[in-house]
């Protein structure tokens, strides 16, 4: 059984996949397996993966019909056999020291999870080792943002026993990683921060993160907020955690109903999105799921104006 399973969902990335897999093969830590799941990719990604799998038996090639990134990651987790699990996006790259530093951090500190910093330029990747820092009260530190624990999954390593029954919601196209990380952070007792840039995150047009606003993006984020509300509404937590969790859940509704639609796009404000977002936000408010009373005072006022005047007038 390998120490670490690296789960790599693959779809339409033939341009970047070789560099991604090469970064894995160059790791200073060698006791790993890569569970690479090709999600019905229409390009040459599958053939590239087969070539790498023939060269190195640690690379496992799995193929399926297109089901989306959440289902693909879930399948990878189900096939993983390592003591720890990492996620690597197939258009990104690891520092050669990623697995070594992350594994040492969780092992030496007996932590459930470790997270590092990421670089948006390969030249920014760290080379000199830095001692990790350990924290308890993980969920409270996460929701209050006392610690810079982002909702990214790719800059973390997880103890597999901790997450083996935690899955990505497959009906949400965007924001699924937020739900996943909330679920894990609630269960995590000790976390390690590795203050090094060990993950190269490649920004490219056409990725889900950089996509223009759409009904899919708005609805997915609303569904993510609804799922967080319903799942954590009755869970035990400190009063401070509850306060900030309520605020962050309410703000996700507010952001994608009110704030995001008026961001400029090519110099043109997109307030016409209010025709779509106003009835959705009102529906969630009437159902008691969107609770603007948890927002900051300024955003409570903006929410009230939107629900009673601005959004209604755009209909």
Describe it.
This protein has 315 residues and is an alpha/beta fold. It folds into 2 domains: 197 residues, Spore Coat Polysaccharide Biosynthesis Protein SpsA, Chain A, CATH 3.90.550; 99 residues, no CATH class. 43% of the residues lie in helices and 17% in strands. Helix 2 links the parallel strand 2 and strand 3. The model has no long low-confidence stretch (mean pLDDT 92).
| SSE ordering | EHEHEHEEHEEHEHHEHHEEHH
Rg, nearest Å: 21 Å
Largest sheet: 9 strands, mixed
Strand content: 15-25%
Q: State the end-to-end distance.
A: 59 Å
Q: Work out the helix count.
A: 11
Briefly summarize what is shown.
With 315 residues, the protein is α/β, with parallel strands linked by helices. It is 43% helix and 17% strand.
